[in-house]
Specification:
Layout lengths: L1 H19 L2 H20 L5 H43 L4 H8 L2 H22 L1
């Protein structure tokens, strides 16, 4: 039972922290910058120097976003694991059983289905 509690804490903690560190808007910005870069490359009215200038600007922004996404993902993932680790040290939860639960296919499937349902339910509700 403590395995499912620990695994659920990791999943929910990751989702909540990913929201608060702004991972979703950053990924949307990556997609927008990528589309903008493709549009610049396809634009026949721009000369090569203009294209290169736009591409370099977008590359700088994309590298910054990569760093922010990596850092935000690490914070969102490592924080719940640190909490489970501390709970393991104090004897409240087992880190090993939590990791074992996280690796089970039925837990992964259930978390995915519940996650999608919650996401679409909240999206529908917020409109």
């Amino acid at each position: 039972m403590e395995g499912i509690l620990g695994a659920s804490l990791v999943v929910v903690g990751f989702v909540v922290l990913a929201h608060f560190v702004g991972l979703i808007p950053k990924t949307a910005e990556v997609l927008a910058r990528t589309r903008e870069s493709i549009a610049v490359l396809k634009d026949p009215q721009l000369d090569d120097d203009s294209k290169e200038r736009h591409m370099q600007q977008n590359a700088i922004v994309l590298f910054k976003l990569l760093g922010l996404l990596l850092l935000g993902s690490a914070v969102a993932l490592l924080t719940p694991f640190a909490i489970i680790w501390l709970a393991d040290i104090t004897g409240l939860l087992s880190l090993d059983s939590s990791i074992d639960m996280l690796l089970r296919w039925d837990f992964l499937l259930g978390a995915t289905v519940i996650g999608f349902a919650a996401y679409y339910g909240l999206r529908r509700f917020s409109r």
